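Hi support team,

I submitted a single chain yesterday and got back a structure, but I'm not sure I'm reading the token output correctly. Could someone confirm the output below corresponds to the sequence I sent? I've pasted both exactly as they appear in my results page.

Thanks,
R.
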Amino acid sequence: MIDAHASVIVETPAAQPVAKTFEAEGGKYQFTIDTSAAPDLTKWAAEQLAPVVQEWYPKLVKMLPSEGYEAPTRVSITFRDGMRVPAAAGGSRISCNSDWFRRNLNGEARGSVVHEMVHVVQQYGRVRRDNPNATRPPGWLVEASLPFDGDAVLQLKAQ
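Hi R., thanks for writing in. Yes, this is the structure output for that exact sequence:
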């Protein structure tokens, strides 16, 4: 990268990707957490987020079975800049708002990822792909149908 405003042009190396893969249930599930856009969150993600993901994703899969459907076994969690929401899920990918997470590391951060993992396990979008006549469920229904709030799960565990 070149700084055009510098008195001397100095090339700085591009940021290196920061992604780490974790497993659960003896390798049945794999999770990649990518903090390339937020390297300051790398340690927190490895020490605080990864254990929650490793513990709770397999539990969610068992709690929310669907006949003829198997939840994704590989899930990616990527921290991004410029998101308008705390986190979002699509397919087997979870995107996390880096700024929001920085402000909520000791609050709702881990719970928001648990919440998004429920969406990954449920795969509402898959229904529409498999059935062209299916209608899109309203957003309030999708969110309200979550069996619990991610933070509530973590609070129950602490008791």
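A quick pointer for reading it: The helical segments are 42-63, 98-103, 109-122, 124-130, 139-144, 150-158. Let us know if anything else looks off.

Best,
Support desk
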